[in-house]
Automatic annotation (TrEMBL):
<dbReference type="InterPro" id="IPR035901">
    <property type="entry name" value="GIY-YIG_endonuc_sf"/>
</dbReference>
<dbReference type="InterPro" id="IPR000305">
    <property type="entry name" value="GIY-YIG_endonuc"/>
</dbReference>
<feature type="domain" description="GIY-YIG">
    <location>
        <begin position="17"/>
        <end position="101"/>
    </location>
</feature>
<protein>
    <submittedName>
        <fullName>GIY-YIG catalytic domain protein</fullName>
    </submittedName>
</protein>
<dbReference type="Pfam" id="PF01541">
    <property type="entry name" value="GIY-YIG"/>
</dbReference>
Amino acid sequence: MSGAQEFRKSALSALTDEIGVYALCDLDGVPMYVGQSVDGIRSRVRRHLTSARSDIIANRQVDVWEIAYVWAWPVADKLDIEPLEAALFQRFDAQIPLMNGKVLPLKPSPVNEPDRQDIQVIEEGERLRRLRPDQRLERQIRQYGILVDYIQTVKSAPHLKRALDAHFERLVSYHKTFL
């Protein structure tokens, strides 16, 4: 196992495995995807990061290379998961479109937001290397092309086109940083 894999494995072991909501965050600490887990946050995030049984990875919605942080909000009751997920989705999606694809509607009832756990899943030196505009722009262009190809050849669905739009918005910001 490489040093990067060991670091990720160690970092994930510190992540809660309670049920709840999580956000996969990019190299800047900006949420890219908000999800929920009714079988344990650590287990679900691990599947995303290893591409094992993860629709968002299989559908090319999220590039694992870009994930540097995981935020987790464990809850005690399964009934709290969906309202919390919708509230966090609405908050983060308003800042920069998330790659979830589908929009999670906000429920009219108030949401009690539990304390957040933050975990960095790549070493800081590697995160800084990946932040280099030449590295990041090239990778984002490639990921955008992969998602376009997936939509054209495998599945053309509204949620994937929304994810493509989120990629494009990030691509534009990386392009500006590159210049």
